[in-house]
Each structure stands twice: as structure tokens, then as C-alpha cells.
Queue: 2 jobs
Job 1
Amino acid sequence: MSSSAEIRHTFFQECDDLLEALDDGLCEIDEGVSDQSFDPETVNAVFRAVHSIKGGAAAFGLDELVQFAHQFETVLDSMRSGNLIANEEVLKLCHRAADYLNDLVVAGRDDVDPPKGSSQDLVEKLSGLLPGKLEAKKEENSGAIGDFNFAPAAISIMDDVPGAVSVVSTYVVKFRPHKTLVSSGNDPLLLFRELSELGELKVSADFGGIESLESLEVDECRITWSLEVDTNLSELEIREVFEFVDGMCDLEISKSGPAALGNEQETNLNQLEVDANPRSDAKISSGNDSVGRGKSGSSGGGANATVRVNLELVDRLINMVGELVINQAVLTQCIDDAGVLDNGELSTSLAEFKNLARDIQESVMAIRAQSVKPLFQRMARIVREASELSGKEALFETEGETTEVDKTIIERLVDPLTHMIRNAVDHGLEAPDLRRSAGKLETGKVKLSAAHRSGRVIIEVSDDGSGINREKVFNIAVEKGLIPADSSLKDSEIDNLLFLPGFSTAEKVSNLSGRGVGMDVVRSAIQKLGGRVNIFSKPGAGTTMSISLPLTLAVLDGMVVDVAGQTMVVPITAIVETLRPDPEDIHKLGSENTVVSVRNKLVPVVDLGVVFGHRSSAVSLSEMVLLLVESDDAMSWALAVDQIFDQRQVVIKGLESNYGYVPGVAAATILGDGNIALIIDPEETARRSDKPSESMSILAMEGK
Amino acid sequence: MTLKVLAIDDSKTIREMLRHTLSQGGFEVHVADDGVDGLEKLECVGPDVVITDINMPRLDGFGVIEKIRSQKVYSALPILVLTTESAQDLKERAKNSGATGWVVKPFDDEKLIHAIKRITVG
């Protein structure tokens, strides 16, 4: 049986889902706010989310959360009922309220004080949306019986009633049920039973309302009762017994004396005495002295069949799948070495084994895959905060929210993305007056998008700001000694200077992006994930930062190649095609550079053997195989290798934690023969070989 | 005799709490995730009392009550409304739909069990 700690855990888990639903809903309303075209059901869903958080929070005594949720809920409720028109201003406030609600939930979960900051202001603004309404609600509450107050502390009404204690009085209760009383599931007998718990009870029934047996209806009560109860409790408590049937009966309660007893019917009363001593079995059993266990009902029974699994288990599974893939490679190698690969049955089984291993791997990956939506929602908040702090109006747009990425990657993207988004608002966008004079809308745009492209995930942060001031960037880089003053750099190289350690263009360190980390930290975080980050900028039009990531951190499909006697792996996803060039398609450019003509397009050739220092000069290209690779921004290169061995799944073993970051090398893997091969990052490798010699100083500085 | 309770609430937290509290209180507890689910389970569980939330997706508490009451066989089935609403009009609406009584969240164990006992014969 669930302990309260477990229920508490459930609550906070549920809160996460509810907060996500809340954010979702608000964004959906955002989209239709201009023409009020949003679905009213969305407003309902948003209301329910806040409402459910409030309901759960109250049970755990999280008063501050309850009160704020109540305030928020009241606003949403009037939006729901049409009393409050949802406009951009209101929505903005709702977003902030959702953020703060999130903070309160986190504070409640971690059992710390909630953040103070702007909460008071927020509460005031929220109540400002409802002129007079909240006050009215409060009054209504205090007038009601304590039971109806949502606040955990029950109000004791008894204190207000003078002379309510210890004196035993006789109350006469006249009770005439309406037709609806029985049809609402109430039962007069049960009311009497409860009344009898207050004190000595005498019941007399009047059957005068029954005309004939035939006219009786099962759900209709035609009997009226007169009850006498001796109790030291107040009239209020007697009324409380009839709380549920209020409005479903005529009820008169008077204190003592037959004089107060009803009038005309008295003579008709067929007296009926009922023994109504308090029944011991009607005593309420408290939560602890359990009466019977009660079979636990249908277990869970959720509509959507999902299970929550400990992440450690999934990770273990992933590791084992990795080992399985290695083992399969070893097995294949052994069978090949033994020279029995021709055996039809054996090779069929082996092929089957490979397929199964792949299926398992893909299924496990699917378990870990999550949509980037929650991540993007977090970023919406960062934009709001950044725009508030910097005084720049920013509109946040997202695209491709449903793109699925490995969970670990998503988690590790939070920090770099946060930084990039802050940068986009703080440095990317111009101040409103500058935008106006540049003929742009005062509200800047920050866009976050995700997409799958050629087996990788591309995440882009773009803004429509002024773009990178290249002159300034260049000067700063020279000033800080990052590059020689006489360097001649291409535009894209200048843009990428931003990623150098120790670079910061902000003239004044703002309390936003200038938090002690630079873009170099962003880049190294992305590289640790096997990713790349690039920056593209157009003066006056904006900047786009693009992150390219592998789909998973565990396994990849690789082409195993021979490079000057070394075995290396090139990710298949990067390879567009492989070709053996005709000698007439190969052209020399100067002394060092070679290009190959592929369908009338000239593509630079990169000899992997030279790049990685396995040989000093290029050998005859006609002997080699070219792997045509394409970058995210549609640049192409032809990687020259000596020979293609095989195409297979390889397990990714990170180099960084064991060795360090090596430019151009994404990771390593273990081959079937137990040897280690490097997995190269084709784009990085190609870009590096591409650079003119004068910028090699940047390369040198980048290797940490 | 062990009384059977069907508890309908879209909040998992509340469902867990109801299950916990009511099992401890000696009831046989069945839960449903929303109004539609609740009506489906009503048939197979055959509860002695129904507890339902008001604000739920697909079918809200009022709808649940009305649907239950529309079946003659359930015309006297005790139904408790469980809600954080303090507003009088919601209680009125629940009553008009045919609710037997209500419990306001956050409920404490005693209050909840008391509310059930006062409307059930067990």
C-alpha cells in the first residue's frame, strides 16, 4: 500500500506533467489570442492543470502553492467563463504565473523556501485582472461553513456561537423530504442515524401524505417526520447533519418545548417511537484502526498504458546492447577466420542475429528518445526572463517540437541552449529604439527549431537582430591576443571567433548572458555530446547558431575503412555516396589542394591519411576510394581513403572522458578483432583541412 | 460487509490518496481516471458509493452524475462530489445533477470516511 511519501512523490511527478500541460495550453492560446480563435477546451485544460496542482498541494500542506494556484485558477476561471478576455497582456501574465507556479512546485518538492522576487507583484497583477471579484469570493468563503473553505485550516464556527456548550437542550426538527431527496441518493434513515449520534433521539413519522399503496413510487418519499433530539450541541450542528439535503426538503429546527412543534398536522400524527440510541457501529473509524483490508481494486488502470522505468535500468540495457553489438562483431570475425562463413545455415543464423541485435538496439533507443518539447518550453521561459531583464521585447517561436532525441542529449542541452537563447536576446536583438530606426518591428524574434537531417538532429537558435559586428569581433580577438593583428579571415571564420575561450564582446557585462561562461563553454558542451556548433550571421538581418547532434550516444552505423594502414570508422549518415574517381575528373589546385569533379561540381578532396598524419603526402587518388560527405550547410567534401572494409554497427566509446578532445575525431569503437578504431567526424575533419594556413593559429589554440 | 467505492478523479495524486485512505478505512477501492472511464467501470465494479471529482477531461463530474442518475437502477446510488471548489453555485449544480453529498479537498481521512458513512447503509 502506498505510504504518504510515495503519494507525495506521485504528486510531484504529476505536477511535472500538469505544468507541461499548462505551458502547452498557454502557448496554444497564445497562437489564437489575436482573433480569439483558440479552443475553449484548451482554456479548460489549462484551468484543470492549475486546479489539480492546487488540489494535491492542499493535501500536503503546501500553503503558499495552494494560495498562489488559487489566485491563478481564479483568473483562468474567469477567462473560461468569458468574464475575462484573453489578450496578450493577460497571456503574458499567465505565462509568468505558470513560471512562478513551477518555482513553487520545485520549492515544495525540495522543501525549501519559495523564491521571493516578483511574487508579490505577480499576485497583485493577477488580482488586478479581476476587479472586485476576489473580494467577493473571499466574503462568500468566510460566510460559508468551514467545510467549504479550501484552506487547510478549518475554521471553528463553534467559537462564534454563544452558549453552545454543555447545556443539554431539546431540539424539535420537522423534516419533510422533497421528491429529489431520494433520487439524489440520500436516505432519511441515514440522516436519523447521524442525528442519533448527537444525542438521545425520538422520531415520529406522519404517513398522512400517502394516499394509497398503488400511488407509491419507489424513489419518492411521502412521509414527514418530527424528530426530537436532546443534545448539548448547537442548532448549527443539527443543521449540518442535513447539509447534503439542503434544498431537498422542508426543514424547521426549533429549540425545546412542544409549543414550537408544528401545528395542523399534530392531530394526524400516527405516533411511531423508534429506539434511536447512538449505535456504536456507526462510530467513525479513524484512518489508522483499519477495519478490514479491502481488496485493492483494479490496479492503476490508467487509460494510456505507460510505465515509469528507472533510468538506470534503461542505461544498463543500453550498455548491454552495446556489448551485444561488439560480441556480434567478434562472433562474425571468428566465424570468418574459421572459414565457415560459406555455410548457408550458419550465415543465415548470423544474419538473423545481426537483425535481432539491431532491432533490440533500436527499440532500446526508442525508449530513451524524447521529444524536445519540454526543453523548448523551458527556453520559452528563458526568453521571457531575458527580455524582461534586458528591456528588449522578444517574441519566441519554436519549430519541430516533436523531434525526438536521446534523453541524455536533451538533458545536457539545457545549459548550452539556455546560454545561447540568453545571448540571442541580450546580444543578438537590438534595443527597441534601434530596431525602430532600422525599420524593423520593435519586438524582436528569437526562433528555436529542431529537425532530423541526414541522421543527425539539428537544433537552431536564430534571431532577427543586427547580426555579428565582425569588425568589432576581429578587433577584440586581436586585442585579447587570440589572433595576430595581420590575420586575414573569412567572414565565417570571424564569426566562429566567438567560440574561442576567453572571448566576450559585451562592452558592459550584463547580468544576463555575462554569467562567467562564454560561447566556448557552449561549444565544448556540444562537442562532448558528439555534436558541432556553427554560427551564421548576416549583418542587419540576424544570427543563427546551429547545433548538429548525433541521434544517440551509444551506437552508430559506420563504414569501416582503411586509411594508410589504420582502420577508421566514418559514420554512414554523413556519407552521400562513395566513388572511385576517373583520373580525368581529378584536378590539382596549386601545389597542395585537389578537387574532384562530381557531376559537374567541383568538390575539394581531403586525404584522411594526410589529415591524421598517417602519411606525409597524398598518394595517387586514382588508387583510392572517395567518400562524398555533406555538411549541414550543404558544403561537400570528398574524403579519400585507401579501402572500404565493411559497413556495420559500431558501439560508440567516448574519447573525451578517457583521453581528451581530439579535433576531427568524434569517438572510438571496438572492432570485432578487439582492436580499437577511431570514429571520425567528417565535417570537422574536412573543415579543418580546409582552413588556410594563416588561421592555423586558431586551430592550435582550440585544442585545449 | 465491505463496501465498494468507485473513486473518479483525473489527478493521480488524488486517486492514490483516495485509494490509500479508503483502503485503510476498510473499503474496497476502485479508481477511474475520468468521467468516461468512471462510467465504464461503474458496470463491472457495481459500487456501493461513487466519489467523483468535478473538473475532469472528457466528461466532468456533473456529466458523470447525470449519466448515472439517468439509469433507473442507480437512482439511489450514493454519489459524493469531491472538489476543491468552495463556490456555492458548484455545489448547487452538483446537487441539481443528482449528487448525494460532497467533500471539499483537501479532505482529511476522517472527514472523508465520515462523509461516506453518512450516506451509506453499511
Job 2
Amino acid sequence: MINRLRTTNSVILLMGLFLIAIIIAPFIAPFDPNQVNMANRLKPVSLEHFLGTDHLGRDVFSRILAGAQTTVGTSFLVLAISLLLGVPIGLVSGYIGGRLDRILMRVVDAFMAFPDYIAAIILSGLLGPGIFNLIFAIVMVKWVGYARLARSTVLTEKQKDYILIAKVNGVGSMNILRRHMIPHVLGNVMVLATLDAGKIILMIASLSYIGLGAQPPTPEWGAMLNEAKAFFYNAPHLMLIPGLAIMVIVLIFNLFGDYLRDYYDVKNQNGGR
Amino acid sequence: MSVLTISNLTIKHREETLVQNIRLSINEGDWLALVGESGSGKSVTSSSIGGLLPRELIISSGSIHLGGVNLSSLKEKEWRTYRGKAISYIFQDYQGAFTPFMSIGAQFDEMLKTHLNDSKQLRKSRALECLNNVNLPAERVYKSYPFQLSGGQLQRAAIAMATILKPKLLIADEPTTALDSITAAHVLQLLAEQQKQTNCAVLFITHDLRHVRKFANKMAVMRKGEIVESGMTTAVLKHPKHAYTKALIAAIPSLKQTKERLVTI
């Protein structure tokens, strides 16, 4: 089935559906995700509460919808900041080269030397729990990948005759970068970013699960998993549902990333592998 | 009047000398062919004229003068006013001559905008006129992207772009190597016409002595980083002095006698 998902346009459809769901989430949520109702706690799946209620009697379906906004919104924010930080640094580093390039790339190497989860845990642990510290920590481990990719694309492009010709035509460096290079770089970077989106969602959920990210009562899938673990025997759906949500969303993003990669891969137009 | 004068140019990569004691001078309206085997330093010499040498290659002595300006002392910012306007290039790889995701017109426009203060309409009409001059369907090519044109069309568009600002010196680095021989002849014919119109000097780098005989009035032969012989094309081809030049000319297969094996240089 996964292969069929990949080859058809259903990936785009799923992605589109999901994005729409995120945007309209507050309007279709049947309850306030933070509304506590102790008389109605740990209820199983029912018609009134599609996905049951949690240990404080909050509607799980509404919390999942709101959590999608937190989790996915945060991951988009992380991606955007990483791109804005990494891509310009990579561009400049690759295009100017020389000593500046060596210095910047040693900094990147230093960041890359740490396994990303460990670095993110240490950083957000040092800064203290909270969603903004979490964003900062993940950006710190993620921007280097984009800097590297942007740099390597620039290095390949720099060899091409059309860049040389733009140069011999007297076009300035800024214009060469902006008009002749960035479109190439962005294509590659977008593919990496979509493939990364799934990993970042997973990372945010993981860090929230161990208590470093979103704090209660913010609805966030990882944090929901964390809160639910005490009630696993009585209400297993409290853990299953956010877990499944994370799995599905990461799967969608990965498939979408694969699709984009194949789409941009000129050598592999048939999509065969 | 001499457009380009290269005197005693030596280019090094660390300890290794790539090009030694080059002396060249090209006059207005001249077509100078630089011939020689691969690795003889032809392209290094031509890149050094436009200041396009990779960082690792250093001009260790000598100078390059264009008009009255010493090019080898120019700073990166000063270069910009000379590149495209005073010196322009045509390269071998026509497919790589234009940025793939920009239309030909946009690239003409960008170049004109860099050097002139013309209005948008004027820039466009200049570009169209220039494309017309090289026998291209101007309107269509102006709107096209590089992949929509054939090799010959692209190379002609590249010539149009290189000559649009009427440079004093046009450097053609093996412009026809990647084209088939009929298209190559057309392209060179066009280049010759453009040269007549603008009266620019052409530095023509090639492997093909037939083209040299047909188009160039002067030639210089390079080997192992040095110019071994130079002079008027007819004189050099008829009475080669240096052993290497003799060997080069002897290596041209003759149409009349086909029995002998080709000479190896």
C-alpha cells in the first residue's frame, strides 16, 4: 500500500487534507481542549467524545486537533528558522570560499559532531523546559544540515559555465547568488526540509514526552503521551491515540518528502527504484 | 592599434609553472588563433585575461594591458566595468552558457542592466536587434528557456550576448568543439560577420587548423606553457619554423593520400 501511496498523487492529497485539517482545527473541535471535567474522566471512545476523555476529563479528539497545531506548527517554525539561518550561511560560505569558508565549516563540523538528539536534550535541558527553548535547541542541531547542503550545491553550481558567463558579463556577486544560484539551492533544500519535517515532529514529540518541550496543559502529542502513561492500564487509548497520530503524520511527511525527491530527480523520471 | 598586449606573462600553481613568458599582442580587427595540444596552457592564458583564474593560480610575473589599463592590477570591483563591456567570452559548452531556469531574454536584460542605464523597452529592443543579427528568430528566442533551443541556436545566442556591448576583445575558447562541423562553420561565419561589424579583436582558441586557416589572420602556437611560434597565419602555415608546428601541420590528414598512417606528435 505504501508503494501505491508513493506512486500516485494520493501523497499530495493526504498532505493537503492534513494541512486543511490543521487550519480548520479550532472550528471543528467539539470541545475546548483545555476544559477540565473531573466527573467525566478516563471515558472510553463514545459518540459524544469520539476518542474518549483523559485523566482530567478533557476531550481527547479536541486535544489531538489542537495538538496537531502545536506539534506541526512548532516543527514548521523550527524548519523556517533553520532554513533562514543555514541557507544564507551555506551560500556565503560556498560562494566566497577561502578562509571564511574554512571557519564557517569548522563551526558546522563542531555542531555536527554531537548526535542530534543528545545535543537537543542537553541544550533544552540547560535552558529549562518550555516550547521556545525547545525550538531553539532543535534549530541549533538542524541548521547545520541546511548550511552544508546549500554550500555543496553552490560549490557544484559555481563550476558551471553559466555562472562564469554571468561573471564575465559583469553581473555582481549578489545578483549571481540571488538570480542564478538560489533557485538551484532552494530545490535541494526544499526536499531535505520535507524529509526533515517528519524527523523534527518526532523530535519535538520525544522531547515533550520526556518533559522538556511543551508544558501541561498545552495540548501537544508528546506531552499527551507523557501525561497518559500513568493511566495506561485503565485507559490505553490515551497513549495509543497520540502515538498513532505521531506515526501517521511522520509517515505522511516522509512520503511527501520521497515524492518531492523523486519529482526533482531528473535522472529518475519514471519513479522506479 | 594594439587592443591587448600580454608581456612576459608567467602563471604558477604553487611551484609548478603552467604558463611561461607569454608575449601576445592583438590589434583592432585582428583574429588571433591560439593553437596547441590539450594542457599547453591556452585556456589558462585566456582565463587570466578576464581575471577568471582560480584562486590557486597566481600571475607571478608579467602584465596584461587592455587599451591603456593594466588588467592584472584590477580589484574585483573594478573588474565589473570591464567584463562584458570591454572583454567578453564565448565558451565551448553551449548548453552551460545560459542559466537553465532563466529565459534568454532575462539574461540579456540582466547584462544590459548591469552596464547601461537604458529604459526597459530600449534594453529589449537592443537584445532583439542583436539576436536578429545572428540570424535567430529574435522574439521567440528572447522568450525561450535554454533547453528549448538547439545547440547551434544557443551558441549563436551566446555570440549575440558576447557582442551586444561591442567589446574591444572577444575571447572564444573552443567555441565550436561541441558542435558538428556544419553548425560550427555557420557559427564561425557569424562570428566573423560580428567581428567585421564591431571591429573587435578576437582571441580564438582552437584545435582545428582548418578553422585557423579560414578565419584567423594571425596565429600563435603553444606548447608546454610557452608560445613556440607566432606570426601571420599564412606565413606560419606555409613555412613553419618550429619542429612542433611542422608536426602539427603534418598531422592534418590529407584528402589526396590516405594510405600512410597519421603522424603521432
